[in-house]
Amino acid sequence: MLNFRLKPILCAALAAAAGFYCFNFSVAALIAVLSVLLASLCFFRVLSSLNEQSRLLRLTAVCSAAIAVGFLLGICAASAGRNNVKFALAQEKITALEGVLLEDPRIISEGRAMATLSLRRCAGAGGLRVTAGGVITVFFPEESALKLREFGRGTTVFTEGRLRNTATGWIYGAESMHVVKTASPLERMRTGVRLNLIKRFDGKPWGGLALALLLGIKDNLDTNLAAMYRNAGCSYILALSGMHLAVLAALIAFLLRKPLGLKMSAIVGALIICLYCLIVGPMPSLNRAALMYLLGVLAVLGALPREPMSILALSFLIQIVVSPASGNSISFILSYTALAGILVIGQPLYSLFAGKAPDFLLQPLSASCGAFLATAGITGFSFGIIVPMGIITGLALVPLTTVFMIGSMIWLALDFIHISGFLNLPMSLLYQLMEKIVSLAGGIPGISSGKPFIILLLSLVLSLLVVIFEYKRRAALLRLEPFS
User: Fold this and answer.
1) What is the pLDDT of residue 281?
2) Are 124 and 94 in contact (CB under 8 A)?
3) Which residues is 229 bridged to in the sheet?
4) Per-residue pLDDT, 2
5) Does one domain contain both 142 and 169?
6) Among 134, 140, 156, 430, which residue's beta carbon has the most beta carbons within 10 A?
7) What CATH number is given to the structural domain containing 129?
8) Under a CB-based contact definition with an 8 Å cutoff, are residues 66 and 9 in contact?
């Protein structure tokens, strides 16, 4: 049974998701939600004056209030998260833009750079400059790429070029770039750390993968390798998320728990995780994992219930309010649905087959199946294909990736004192093994989702069957317990 404190949090998170993804902000919706909220609070106030005779009614009132609050947060966050690009000039008259880099520039094809720009001003013919607002994707020429990487996030730039409106939003093709203002000292220090790490891994055949797994930097990642991971249904391994943060958190716990104790090591670990996220930069899936880690630290300290679903739901509510724009990211959606699938579907799967397969194999297989079923519909709608083979491939790649990440961190630590050379061969061999696995798995075709709605329906039916079977199994055990 779910904890009493968990149910309202789950209700609020589900309502917030419905409000964010299914409804547009309107005065009528706001009035309706406020009315439900007030009615629920009044109902709860009446019930609170009664004796402890109706726990169900009390819980219903609390959940109703949680749904109203969550729905209100969702539609407000949806409104705040919309990217409303505003120009004070006609599109055809705009010749230049000025804004602040919101992310570290990414090197793409032909050496060009791509980055998102928070607009400040736009310019037209004759030197006319007017204010502008919103976020726009800018493609910079090759000659500007290295300079952009050197200055990094937070830099104010002025760029001349051509503006276009596409089906996916506004994009800007820059022809030249000038730095107007450098980033803050903290941002410059962060950029310096990233450049130093890129330089250290440069030239290593496995360095591009190490940078992708440790820092989310994919500029040096072999494009063929990235395509093989995608074809094998394991591209999630290359996206920084809970798996990668779990490796870092486990290493922190291993080094600090014995000398500092559980609570103090958790606090120090939280500070290290925050510093790590600062260096890596804003990534929705990584932010979700980091936020859950911080909430987990509060649970260790006794401030929150130690229940993964409540922490996941609370993390969603916080992230959607603090960073509403991230809710529109496919990585954000997949990150939350995958973990929810592991908890809601994966755990019952494990319980149903416990004892019928080796535990070391059954646990990751159940988690992988749960994540696959939860995300199959979204993947089908977004990418037009699902790759069930990724369930099996992940069983081999995830442990190898964990070893590769730990090896990369050890190599990096030793490289600072110039004694990392003996690890180059083992890292190269491990890299080649992982490359071979994804190459073989990528040769097995996926399932084209010409009708993604059918895939969504099948995944929901299978998930529901798993939950029902587990519920019946538990009910049967409870009936037999008095006779045992």
Assistant:
1) 84
2) yes
3) none
4) 42
5) yes
6) 140
7) 2.40.50.140
8) yes
**pLDDT at residue 55, as a whole number:** 66
pLDDT of residue 42: 54
Q: Which residues pair with 176 in a beta bridge?
A: 160
Residues 6 or more apart whose CB falls under 8 angstroms from that of 22 comprise: none
CB 175 within 8 A of CB 160: yes
Q: Are residues 114 and 25 in the same domain?
A: no
**Which residues does 96 contact at the CB level (< 8 Å), separation at least 6?**
122, 123, 158, 159, 160, 161
Could you tell me which of 250, 256, 246, 328 has the C-alpha nearest to residue 292?
246
The answer on 101 and 37 residing in a single domain is no
Please check whether residue 332 lies inside any domain of the structure.
Answer: no
The identity of residue 59, as a single letter, is L
Q: What is the pTM of this model?
A: 0.86
The answer to the question of residue 409 being in a domain is no
Range of the domain at 170: 86-183
Q: Which tokens is 390 given?
A: 């990724």
Residue 423: per-residue pLDDT: 93
Distance CA 407, CA 402 (A): 9
- Same domain for 69 and 91? no
Q: Are 282 and 324 in contact (CB under 8 A)?
A: no
Domain boundary among 161, 183, 205: 183
pLDDT for residue 6: 58
Query: Residue 257: which residues within 8 A CB-CB, separation 6 or more?
Result: 265
Q: Which two tokens stand for residue 477?
A: 């055990």
Q: Which residue has the tokens 């880690």?
A: 293
Number of domains in the chain: 2
Sites in the chain below the pLDDT cut of 50: 1-4, 25, 27-28, 50, 52, 483
